[in-house]
Amino acid sequence: MSHVRTLLRRPSVQGAFVVPILISVFGLNAMSNGEKSVDQVFRDPKVVALIKAANKGEIAEMDSLVRQGADPNSVGNEGQTPLVWAMASNNKTGIQKLLELGADPNKKMTNDNSD
């Protein structure tokens, strides 16, 4: 994870380059959420709120939710993690904050999209 944090701090990587780099790590298919909402994929309401906050870049809310027990490495019923879900929002602030809160960018997805 330290490699990802270092990479995100580099000016040449910030902005529009973050999501393509993470896509290359997780695979393009990981970005597909289909027609399902976050509420349908994740059962824990705290994790749902964490993802929604990440999608909006609300870092104070994200901190609060993790302190209350939201797991940034939980896995939804589609095999996706909050980090992968947040990547689809293209919100650099939310993605970076999830990494800072312990989201594992190397966590293998359970739906075969992370080979």
Describe this structure as you would to a colleague.
This protein has 115 residues and is mostly helical. The chain has a single domain, classed as Serine Threonine Protein Phosphatase 5, Tetratricopeptide repeat, CATH 1.25.40. Helix content is 50%, strand content 0%. It contains 7 helices and no strands. The chain has helices spanning 2-9, 18-26, 38-41, 45-56, 59-67, 82-87, 92-100. The longest helix is centred in the middle third of the chain and has 12 residues, at 45-56. The two termini are 18 Å apart. The model is unreliable at 1-7, 10-17 and 26-31 (pLDDT under 50).
Topology readout:
Layout: H1 2-9, H2 18-26, H3 38-41, H4 45-56, H5 59-67, H6 82-87, H7 92-100
How large, in whole angstroms, is the Cα Rg? 13 Å
CATH class: Mainly Alpha
Q: Give a count of the beta strands, DSSP E runs of length 2 or more.
A: 0
Helix content: 40-55%
The helix/strand series, from N terminus to C terminus, equals: HHHHHHH
**What can be said about the biggest beta sheet?**
none
List keywords for this structure.
single chain, mainly alpha, Serine Threonine Protein Phosphatase 5, Tetratricopeptide repeat, 7 helices, globular
Write a brief caption for the model:
The protein has 115 residues and is an all-alpha fold.
